[in-house]
Amino acid sequence: MRFKKIASVLASAAMVFSTIGFAAATTYPAPFINNGAADVAIVYGSHPSAIDNAAVVNIQDSLNSKLTADSVSGSATPEGGEFVKLEKASTKFQLGNGIIDVISSSVTDDDLEVLLADGTYTDDDNDDFEYTQKLTIANLSLTMFDDNDYKEDTPTVGFSVTSNTNVLNYTLDFNTEPLWADLPQTDIKIMGKDYFILSVTTNTTLNLLDSGVTSLVNEGEAVTVGDFEVSTQVFSSTQAILTINGERTNSLNVGETQKLAGTDTYVGIKNIFYVSKDTGISSVEFAIGSGKIELINAQDVQINDDSINGLTANFTSSSEKLQKIVIQWNADDDLFVAEDSSITIPGFENVKMSYTGITYPAEELFTVQGGSSTYVQLNDFPLKDSTEDINLLYGASGAFTGIGKDATNKLRTTNLSTITFDGDTDAYLVASYDDGSDAESYLIKTTSFSTENAVNRTTIQFRENGAWVNKKENAEPTDTVSLGNVQLTVGYIDKNAKTVVLNASASTNFNRLYSKEGLKVWLPWEVNGTDAQVTSFTHGAINFTSNVSQHNATSFALAFFEEDKNENIGDGKGFNTTLAWNADSEAHVSDLVGESVTAAEVGDTNIFRTFMYSALATEFMWDQGSGSSEQDSIKVTYHGAESSANVFLTDISASTGGTNTIGTPILDTEIAQASGKNLIVVGGSCVNTVAAELLKGSGAARFCGADWTAATGLGADRFLIQTFARTDGNVATLIAGWGAVDTQNAATALTTRLSVDTSVGAKHTGSTVDNIESVVTP
User: Fold this and answer.
1) Quick count: other Cβ atoms within 10 Å of Cβ 650?
2) Which residues have a Cβ under 8 Å from the Cβ of 403 and sit 6 or more positions away?
3) In this structure, are strands 40-44 and 678-682 parallel, antiparallel, or unpaired?
4) If I label 169, which of 19, 291, 427, 519 is the partner at 20 to 30 A Cα–Cα?
5) 323 touches 173 (CB < 8 A)
6) Strand extents, DSSP E, 141-279
7) Strand 40-44 relative to strand 666-667: parallel, antiparallel, unpaired?
8) How many CB atoms lie within 10 A of CB 590?
9) How many angstroms separate the first and last alpha carbons of the chain?
């Protein structure tokens, strides 16, 4: 299943269901989506015989598409701190890009004006030295990865950074160079934080104290610094004890630090101002922060005497002057930047890299699948004016023999500008317009052939909102028919043969198909006999009697082309789905060709996820079934325009949120994870214990057959959509049928029919998607 698994731990709660208690009427997708936010868990059966994958995926995709319509996917912007988005106005961050493909490698004060501000350093002689700061980011790539160290069996979009790979380098570069000898006992700001230079070894070592909070306390007095009350005893110019919130430190010298008991905070001595007790009052300047940082040239950085693996310091010096400090961050272990995982530079803990998802301008979903055992179709393909099942190739016994569904329901196609439609054998044709910038397609057929005044006539229809609509009644030769930009001229009409010739105008064709958002599909068109013009590069051509690879009766490459980032039709990347036959000689999809990353299985579902690394980031969910006898299918998600990733560098205080998605469907055995959520429960009481409890009460065991009929009033070939009350004011809607096909029909009815009531107490039953009735209304 298309399960975008996100691990979560939620408190368990007793499941209490009822069909009474709510008065407000709601319709799908409410209450599962409200005001652009998801509040739902999809629950499916854990019984080994459960085969409701298709219904689960259908509902998940439907809800995700509703989220896309209600809110911009993946557009979360950091809040509460400083950030820079890694993109340019002219260069968006596309899936598959590396960071350097999008921006220059350096991030400076032009991008993070506080974190990387130009500074002025004052040395121990009170001489000033200006410096600049920058972050040089490695060319990390945004990809789909599948790594069990991140999440088990969960193909994920993000950044996978393998151990020892460079992440970024920080550079502090002096315009004029201070002497190493004049650095101790001074302050410097690095990546937005203040540090006190405790001591140095010329050209090799720089010891810093995090000066998160700095103050001065006189002996015999107390000062309050944040949550800490501090007093001191001074014994000499090299020894002092601090008392912090009643706890005494060890005797500390200048530059020494100590961890405060029970905290992750350190105190350090910056200066001891000793005065003999008979002549004055001594004082101590101290800092409370994360502790001491030791930078040693070409070695790992040490924080409070612990080495930070993968974080290395490097100095550039000349004539005992410090020119440059470079902190190199290489991954110590595998790192992952995803919608629920960011990475922060260790030790300094003040620069974070995060990813909040991809912004998709649109989302079109359709499936390339076997319509039955004998033909292959595009299921729920989105046209300009309708969403339709478009049948492509049919046959039997492992061989395609025609274009369409069967011999009396053909899809009429041609690569020529003139087409002859046959009312006896043809179900429809596709007429498309494409001028390179705009494209649209229509399903067309002719009907009602007649003769009037010795002129043959016919009615031309097209599909609109799922129904055949008359476009031109009693059309006769030379008449013009216009559908959007498609222009057709009626040619010869043969009433007896029920045929009509249609002539295409410029930019109109009969062998290409375009989705509403602009995905281009090359429809099959027949090359007769032994015609040699078909080659492996001739999109759409099929010869049922020859054996040209991917263009023959046993295997056909259905070619698709995305738009490019400027929305030029067909100028983007291409991919093929191979239409073929399984081991039982059933028509199905045997392969996906052209995807950018190896498909990875989602959980243990036999469904594999992959993408196009392109401006439009087309996504595939490839259902490969459990064996060679399964009818494999591929669900395609097309995004209609350039899709851009949201990748950020931020300071540590910035918070980010990820893409708003439905999340991973859960098993009935994982119901505790759904505490406080609305539920959509998929599958009947025979395979889903949550369904059983909805129908018979808390604690009910699974039940089948006659018991199902007794509980629901439904027998074979029937389905149910019923909503129950759940604790905490939530609801549970049951989507179930006698068998898996009936459950799928229920899911399709829920997601495609208008105004399905999901109020508590609402109950719908049916036998097909088009035969649903409301039995109970609240």
Assistant:
1) 25
2) 392, 393, 394, 410, 411, 412, 413, 523, 524, 525, 526, 542
3) parallel
4) 291
5) yes
6) 143-145, 156-161, 166-174, 186-190, 193-201, 205-210, 213-218, 222-225, 228-236, 239-244, 247-248, 257-259, 266-273
7) parallel
8) 17
9) 33
Q: Which residue has the higher pLDDT, 395 or 528?
A: 395
Structure tokens at 178: 């201070």
Is there a contact between 643 and 649 (Cβ–Cβ < 8 Å)? no
pLDDT tens column, 697-746: 988 999 999 999 999 999 999 999 999 998 778 999 999 999 888 998 89
719 in Cβ contact with 740 (< 8 Å): no
Tokens 């350190």, residue located: 266
pLDDT-based confidence at residue 615 (cuts at 50, 70, 90): very high
* 648-700: pLDDT as tens digits: 999 988 877 544 567 778 889 989 888 889 999 999 999 999 999 999 998 89
The encoded tokens of residue 297 equal 């040239």
Rounded CA-CA distance 343/376 in Å is 46
Angstrom distances, CA of residue 746 to CA of 386, 682, 735: 21, 9, 6
One-character DSSP codes across 532-568 = TT--TTSTTEE-TTS--TTBSSS-EEEEEE---TT--
| 3-class DSSP assignment, residue 27 | strand
Cα–chain center distance at 636? 14
Can you read off the two tokens belonging to residue 673?
């994870």
Question: Can you give the pLDDT at residue 71?
Answer: 43
Which residues is 418 bridged to in the sheet?
Answer: 503
pTM: 0.78
Instruction: State the DSSP string of 76-107.
Output: ---BSS-EEES--SS----TT-BHHHHS-SEE
Cα–Cα distances (Å) from 255 to 118, 208, 258, 583, in that order, read 27, 9, 10, 76
Tell which residue, 576, 577, 579, 566, has the closest CA to residue 518: 566
According to DSSP, the residues that pair with 328 across neighbouring strands are 169, 312
Please check whether residue 116 is in contact with residue 298, taking contact to mean a CB–CB distance below 8 angstroms.
Answer: no
What pairing do the DSSP bridges indicate for beta strands 40-44 and 633-638? unpaired
**Residue matched to tokens 């799908």:** 28
Pull the structure tokens for residue 486. 């498609």
Residue 566 has a CB neighbour count (10 Å cut-off) of 11
More confident residue, 256 or 778: 256
* Sequence-ordered list of residues with C-beta below 8 angstroms from that of 192, at least 6 positions apart, any chain: 82, 114, 115, 116, 117, 350, 651
Question: In which band, very low, low, confident or very high, does the pLDDT at 6 lie, cut at 50, 70 and 90?
Answer: very low
Mean pLDDT score of the chain? 90
3 pLDDT exceeds 80?
Answer: no
User: Per-residue pLDDT tens for 31-73?
Assistant: 998 766 788 999 999 876 667 877 888 898 888 777 654 444 5
pLDDT in tens, 319-370: 999 999 999 999 999 999 998 899 999 999 999 999 999 999 998 999 999 9
CB 759 within 8 A of CB 749: no
Give the CA distances from residue 29 to residues 59, 378, 753, in Å, rounded to whole numbers and listed in that order.
10, 25, 11
* C-alpha 57 chain-centroid distance: 15
> Length of the chain, please?
778
Does residue 10 surpass a pLDDT of 50?
Answer: no
Q: Is the separation of the CB atoms in 426 and 412 below 8 Å?
A: yes
